[in-house]
Structure formats: C-alpha cells, structure tokens
C-alpha cells in the first residue's frame, strides 16, 4: 500500500503554523464585526439598512483590494502579499482609536474599510500560499486544514464582542436616548464606542507581532515571480479565466456562499431576540454557540473529505443549510434558533472547498484566479443589504429566505463540479483505451 504524502512537510511546518494564525486573525476581525451591525444600529439610532453599511464597507474592501493583491503576489511573492496585508490590517485596526474619539459613524466605516482591505490582501495571498506548500493532489485538504483554524478566530471574535462590546451597551431605548441632553447622550455614546475600540486596537498589536514573526522566516515555496511589471500579462490571464466555466462558476458560488454566511451571522442576534426574546447579550451567546459548531465542524469536514469527494459534500451541506433556513422562517422559536446554530456546521466547509475546487488546474493563472475568488467576497457586502431591507419592511424571520436561495445556488456549483469531474474521467478513460497506431 502506497504511503500517503503528509499534508505539511517539516520544512513548511513553521510557516504553515504562522499562516494558520493569519487565518484565525481574519476570523477574529470578521466575526467581531458581525455584531457591530446591531451595535451601531443602537448607538447611532439607525435602521437595519443603514447599519448594514458596516458589512458593505468591510466586504466591499475585499472586492477593491483583491486585484492589487494579485499584482503584489505575481510581481513579488506570496510572502510579500501576506506582509503587506498584515501591515494594512494593523493600520486599519489602529484607526478605531481616533474613530472612537471623533464619535462619527463614517470614521468607523473608514477604519473597517482599511482593516478589511489589508485582510483582503492577506487572504488573497495566504490561501494559495498554503495550497502551494505541498503536492497539488492534497491542496484542497491542506487548505481545509488551515481554514479549520479560522473558526478559532471566529469564536474568539464573537467572544470578544460578547464580553467587551455587547455588555457595555447602554440599555436605553431610541426614545430614551432622544430625550437625553446633548452632554448626557455624548457621554453614553462615548462609553459605548470606547468599548468597540478596545478589542480592535488590541488585535492591531497582535497583527504587528505576527508580521514580525513572518518577516523573519525563510519562504518555503519556490515561486515563479515576474521581475518587471510589464511581464504581468493581466489581459491574457483574465481572458483565460473568463473562458474557464469551472472557474467562473466557482467565483459565482463563492459570491453567494459568502453572502449567505454573512447574512446568517450578521442577523443572528436579531433573529434570536425575535424568536426567543432576551437582549443583545443573549443573542450574542447564540452567535457564540454557532461559532463553536463552526469550529468543530471544520475539523470533521476535513476528515470526511478523505472518504467523500469535496464537491459532493459541498452539495449535500448546501442543501441541508437551505432546508434549515426554511425551517427558521416557519418555526420562529427554539426550533428556529437550533436550526440557525446548525447552519454553521454546513457553512464550515464551503469557503475553502469552493476555493480549492475553483483553482484546480489553473497553473500560471492561479494568483489572479485567487484574487477573483477573494473579490467574490463582495457577496458579503451586497446580500446583507437585501436582507436588511426585508427586515425593515417585514421581519428578521422572513429575511432568512435570502441565505436559503444562496445555499441552493452553492449546491448547484457542487453538482456542476461532480458532473464536470465525471466528464473529465470519461474523457481520460477514452483516451487511455484508444487504440495506438504504430507506424
């Protein structure tokens, strides 16, 4: 029996560990940001649609910075991209301090944009970097292993929000805030925004430490990098990628996957409060349970991929997630809340699996292809706005039809890849069995 090659070699072990910290870092940022939609809605007395601009700024930055990240990776290296992303993310996190002092919503959106822009560069670089740390056959499993540590960050992010931000929200209603004097309202808002600022500035210091550690290690991957900007043939790469249906549909699937994930988690607190009552802290606990399920399921799904084709598992989990969303709309009680938490088990494999499947066989176009898949995170900026509009017009219960439709589209990509694989296998078998003419 042939011995299976290790997912990570001795030479790449330390860099791999440091990169998994990066995976956890953007998990902290993303899921510490999710509750901010509810937080800013309360602090600044805004509608759900207005407060959802938090996600628009955050995920919109991913869209804007992914192509520049591809240029950095192609012109220099994945390591340079990782360091650039970490530095930019740290700068954005530090901006939360002046934002808390000015007490303006726009400044917080700017800080989130800079933070997420850095994470976009980091993610565009780190994902293919991990895939390149070994043989191509195990790349998707290796990426799932690295991404399994992302939920460690998501859990930490929700924990920080639940312990440092949500308990420090003043329980005064919008009407009570409106009746306060200007000085009293300023004092209340200042204390709340200081609570928002503290965990982000703390994360900034951690990112600086990780930057120093990665800068000091040797790059373990031999990359073919272009030394002149004019050698980066963006047009040719884009044309090849656009003609590749498998990749193109993968980008669309990632768009709807990230949109669904963001919708599910962003409005978890509101759904829990509507379904079973309680306040923001109670809703934050439900979000924490979701993150724990997400964390455990990442490792379970990575193990299952040894026995089940990744696209098939993706299709099955997407269909289950869509069904759970429908249950939530029909049973807005404890059953709906349990279904909401269970969706995170389905979400756990989606991002890295779509990412790995879509990049298969791209060769020299992998770096630009990785940027396209990160740009697809734009779904997290756009789709929550639709859900927020439904919340303002109807209810948070009804709004979960949005992620349900997204999950069905993701399941469609899983089915497409299964059929595409069967077609490739048939073609390969036909070629191998064709008679050979000897001249």
From TrEMBL:
Q: Where in the cell is it found?
A: Cell inner membrane
The record's annotation in CDD domains points to: MFS_FucP_like
UniProt-listed InterPro entries = Lfuc_symporter_FucP, MFS, MFS_trans_sf, MFS_TsgA-like
Q: Which domain of life is it from?
A: Bacteria
Q: What membrane topology was assigned to this protein in its record? A: Multi-pass membrane protein
Q: Which UniProt keywords apply?
A: Cell membrane, Membrane, Transmembrane, Transmembrane helix
A GO CC term assigned to this protein in UniProt: plasma membrane
Stored Pfam families = MFS_1
Give the residue spans that cross the bilayer: 12-32, 52-73, 80-97, 103-122, 143-166, 197-217, 249-274, 286-306, 313-331, 337-358, 370-391, 397-416
One Gene Ontology MF term: fucose:proton symporter activity
Supply the name of the protein. Answer: L-fucose:H+ symporter permease
The taxonomic lineage of its organism, from the top, reads:
Bacteria, Pseudomonadati, Pseudomonadota, Gammaproteobacteria, Alteromonadales
Gene expressing this chain = fucP
């Amino acid at each position: 029996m042939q011995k299976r090659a290790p997912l990570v070699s001795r030479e790449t072990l330390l860099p791999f560990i440091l990169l998994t910290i990066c995976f956890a870092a953007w998990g902290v940022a993303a899921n510490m940001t999710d509750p901010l939609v509810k937080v800013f809605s309360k602090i600044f007395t805004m509608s759900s649609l207005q407060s959802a601009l938090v996600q628009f700024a955050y995920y919109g930055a991913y869209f804007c910075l992914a192509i520049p990240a591809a240029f950095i990776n192609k012109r220099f290296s994945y390591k340079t991209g990782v360091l650039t992303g970490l530095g930019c993310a740290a700068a954005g996190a530090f901006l939360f301090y002046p934002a808390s002092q000015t007490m303006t919503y726009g400044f917080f959106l700017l800080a989130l944009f800079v933070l997420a822009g850095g994470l976009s560069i980091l993610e565009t670089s780190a994902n293919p970097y991990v895939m390149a740390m070994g043989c191509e056959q195990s790349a998707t499993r290796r990426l799932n292993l690295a991404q399994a540590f992302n939920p460690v960050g998501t859990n930490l992010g929700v924990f920080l929000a639940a312990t440092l931000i949500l308990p420090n929200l003043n329980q005064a209603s919008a009407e009570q805030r409106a009746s306060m004097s200007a000085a009293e309202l300023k004092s209340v808002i200042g204390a709340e925004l200081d609570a928002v600022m503290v965990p982000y500035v703390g994360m900034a210091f951690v990112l600086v430490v990780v930057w120093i550690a990665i800068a000091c290690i040797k790059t373990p991957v031999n990359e073919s990098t272009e030394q002149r900007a004019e050698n980066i043939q963006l047009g040719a790469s884009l044309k090849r990628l656009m003609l590749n249906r498998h990749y193109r549909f993968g980008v669309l699937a990632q768009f709807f996957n990230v949109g669904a994930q963001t919708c599910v988690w962003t409005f978890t607190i509101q759904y829990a409060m509507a379904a079973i009552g309680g306040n923001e802290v109670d809703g934050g606990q439900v979000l924490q349970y979701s993150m724990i399920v997400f964390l455990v399921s990442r490792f379970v799904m990575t193990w299952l991929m040894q026995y089940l084709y990744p696209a098939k598992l993706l299709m099955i989990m997407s269909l289950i997630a869509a069904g759970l969303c429908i249950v939530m709309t029909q049973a807005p009680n404890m059953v709906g809340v349990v279904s909401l938490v269970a969706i995170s088990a389905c979400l756990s494999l989606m991002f890295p699996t779509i990412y790995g499947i879509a990049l298969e066989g791209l060769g020299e176009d992998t770096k630009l292809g990785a940027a396209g898949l990160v740009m697809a995170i734009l779904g997290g900026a756009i789709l929550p706005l639709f859900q927020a509009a439904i919340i303002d017009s109807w209810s948070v219960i009804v709004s979960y039809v949005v992620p349900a439709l997204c999950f069905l589209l993701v399941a469609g990509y899983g089915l497409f890849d299964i059929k595409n694989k069967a077609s490739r296998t048939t073609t390969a078998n036909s070629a191998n069995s064709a008679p050979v003419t000897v001249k």
